[in-house]
Amino acid sequence: MVMAKLILLINHAFFVNTVTYSRNVFIPLTNACRNKCYYCGFRSSNPKIMEINEARQLMRSADGASEVLLTFGEKPDIHEKIREKLKKMGYSQFIDYLLDVCRLAISMGFLPHTNAGVLSRAELRMLKRYNASMGLMLEQAVELECHSESPGKRPEIRIKTIKDAGKLRIPFTTGILIGIGEKREDRIYSLEVIADIHKNYDHVQEVIIQNFSPKKGTKMESHPPPSIQDMLDTVRMAREILPDDVTIQIPPNLVEDVYPFLKAGARDIGGISDTTPDFVNPDHPWPELVKIERCLRGEFRLRERLPIYPKYVKLGWYSSEIAVVLQRLSDREGYRCRN
Fold first, then answer.
1. Is residue 163 classed as helix, strand or coil in its secondary structure?
2. What single DSSP character describes residue 249?
3. CB 39 within 8 A of CB 218
């Protein structure tokens, strides 16, 4: 009995002190977006769309990555220029093109993770077949001035998309954006909303606590970013509010030192790419893993995961379309296997 308890304690300590990350290739399919968020430097009023061969080249260059991170603006085919380009490429709508990119990624041995903005339940169902996981930042569960020209940032429709993903059993990433005009009580409320959704659908694998970063040329270029103390406070609140099986992620390229955030309760540093930059925050390059390991102070251990968390690998929350790739890339615990 004593030995069993000792083993349990050792296993618990190992779990608590493990910090996960994934290796990805970041593919920004288009910078067209129906929203006009005051802080966004990614969206363009003269948008472009990536040819599928460009996406293929990026994937070919991503040696060692397991995840293809597909990011783009919300409802991009609202733009006439994008619709015309899609037509020339042989597609009647953007989601058909997106599905082909997902299929391509799978055929090349990757697991897609799509951040598509607000989606209908039918669109989520289509994408589920070709994605290991998906994501949508809640940002804040309250109306804010910075979203006044962004119909897709209305909290109720973002919450509906996150709930619909749960109903479809899609392993999901969401999160909140800190420093965009919200109050502390708004952050608490937003985290409570996410916690409540997960308690009902059990599909939120991670919650990102992301700090606003000012970008030149935006309406909020002079708006101050949140303090480190505000960020740490939010991570601590998140760990208190969110269920234990929801991992808290901190973006390692947006903070100088991840260690204080790990001490506050974060246990994941997201996707890191050796091939592509963070196209949403291009002024903040990914840190090398060696630097991150130094920040761990010997107290935490890095472990590579897949875009789908081990819990959902074990539960079988994935489609037959990605099963072969997933089984090749995952170990017995559901993490990235070490070849």
1. helix
2. E
3. yes
308 touches 318 (CB < 8 A): yes
104: nearest Cα among 29, 22, 23, 205: 29
Query: Span 19-329: which CATH code?
Result: 3.20.20.70
Strands (E), 73-166: 111-115, 133-135
What pTM, to 2 d.p., does this model score? 0.93
Query: Whose CA is closest to 175, among 195, 202, 157, 151?
Result: 195
As a whole number of angstroms, the distance between CA 208 and CA 187 comes to 12
> Does residue 5 register a pLDDT over 90?
no
For residues 277 and 327, what is the distance between their CA atoms, to the nearest angstrom? 28
Cα–Cα distance, 227 to 232 (Å, whole number): 9
Task: Tell me the per-residue pLDDT of 217-267, one tens digit each, with 9 for 90 and over.
Answer: 999 999 999 999 999 999 999 999 999 999 999 999 889 899 999 999 999
CA atoms within 13 A on the CB side of 21: 22
Q: Among 217, 212, 225, which residue's Cα sits nearest to residue 140?
A: 212
